[in-house]
Design a protein that fits this description.
Layout lengths: L8 H10 L7 H5 L2 E3 L4 E5 L27 E5 L1 E8 L2 H8 L3 H33 L3 E5 L4 E5 L7 E2 L17 H19 L5 E4 L1 H12 L2 H4 L4 H10 L2 E2 L5 E4 L3 E2 L7 E2 L6 E4 L7 E5 L15 E8 L2 E15 L5 E4 L5
Parallel strand pairs: 1-14, 7-17, 8-10
Antiparallel strand pairs: 2-3, 4-16, 5-6, 8-13, 9-10, 11-12, 13-17, 14-16, 15-16
Helix pairs in contact: 3-4
Length: about 350
């Protein structure tokens, strides 16, 4: 049997830790990660304070002021644990002696390990986008869980463009309605969080509604610079439009190998400042496997040879949860009918 280093626990763990998420997992790739040693995490909901200091007189006690924020939230980590039985072709190369067999066996094992790791990354990405809508809801046969990130009602909206229930929807909105809506969202974020909105995440069809609406109007088209137009035709994005960077994301996932689902649905937009003060990060909790080193956080991988039925298996587990400490820096507009 080939001597495969990936069957060594420390080597396998090191390989998993060096994996990077696919490029279309936009949020998972950009979020910082923080370890947490307990199975339940508590975090502050921090609000940008608008309160001023008040005058005092010399030789008197200082005024006691409240702590920054408007509360705390706690939740258990979401626990993901899956394993993969190596395919017959993999087992063939594993059992065949020789240098060529060893090379093929290592490649086959690595491919299976990467596939299992990618499943975890894709699931984490779905949770992050759910969190950016204000909450996570899980309802499966094994797990029923809800996490409320305490978004203010004004920071999640299913209103149509124009900000009213009777306004035009995204496919027919006028440039004036779009400008009014974007200005209102930007002003809401800066007043509530004291930081400026910088980015918008949306799909290509949603971006097209905006570009086509402005391009169709002679007056509004003047608001699109040549640089914005060039960027749109080359990448489908517009940097700097209305003072924001418009980021198109078309990443998909599926749960049944039948229908792809967009991480960001058509006609949704996610607006905010996703960097200043670290409003959102991915917390990683302790591993629950007895084979793991004590106090380990993050992904844990192991492999073993099953005697009956005979076969090699690879297991991966992860305790993680997106954490939003500054929901006032973010805004989510739900999809509307077109």
């Amino acid at each position: 049997m080939p001597d495969i280093s990936l069957f060594e626990p420390t080597v396998l763990q090191g390989v998993v830790e060096k994996f990077t998420a696919p490029a279309d997992l936009v949020m998972l790739n950009r979020l910082p990660r923080r370890p947490w040693p307990y199975p339940t995490i508590t975090w502050d909901i921090i609000q940008g304070s608008k309160l001023t200091a008040s005058p005092n007189v010399p030789n008197s006690a200082a005024h006691i002021v409240p702590r920054l924020g408007r509360g705390q939230q706690s939740a258990s980590f979401i626990y993901v644990r899956e394993k993969k039985v190596f395919e017959p072709t993999t087992l063939y190369w594993v059992r065949t002696p020789g240098e060529l067999a060893q090379t093929n066996a290592e490649a086959a094992v690595l491919r299976e390990v990467q596939d299992l790791n990618q499943r975890f990354d894709i699931y984490a990405e779905t949770l992050i986008w759910q969190a950016l809508q204000g909450g996570i809801a899980i309802n499966t046969l094994e797990v029923v869980a809800n996490v409320d990130y305490q978004f203010q009602a004004t920071h999640t909206s299913d209103a149509t463009w124009g900000g009213t229930a009777t306004g035009a929807n995204w496919s027919t909105a006028t440039p004036a309605q779009m400008i009014a809506e974007i200005r209102a969202i930007k002003r809401l974020i800066v007043r509530d969080s004291r930081v400026r909105a910088r980015e918008v995440f949306l799909t290509e069809p949603t971006m097209a509604y905006i570009f086509e609406s402005f391009s169709a109007s002679a007056d509004a088209a003047a608001l699109l610079s040549d640089r914005m137009k060039d960027a749109y035709y080359q990448t489908g994005e517009m940097s700097g439009f209305m003072g924001l960077n418009w980021m198109v994301t078309e990443g998909v996932y599926d749960t049944s190998a039948v229908n792809d689902t967009l991480f960001v649905a058509d006609n949704e937009i996610y607006v905010g400042n996703f960097t200043d003060n670290t409003p959102i990060y991915l917390a990683e909790g302790p591993t629950a496997d007895h084979s793991a080193p004590q106090g380990m956080t993050g992904k844990f991988a192991k492999t073993w040879l099953e005697e009956d039925p005979s076969g090699r298996q690879h297991l991966l587990e992860w305790h993680m949860l997106p954490i939003i400490e500054r929901p006032e820096q973010l805004y989510y507009r739900a999809a509307v009918n077109t």
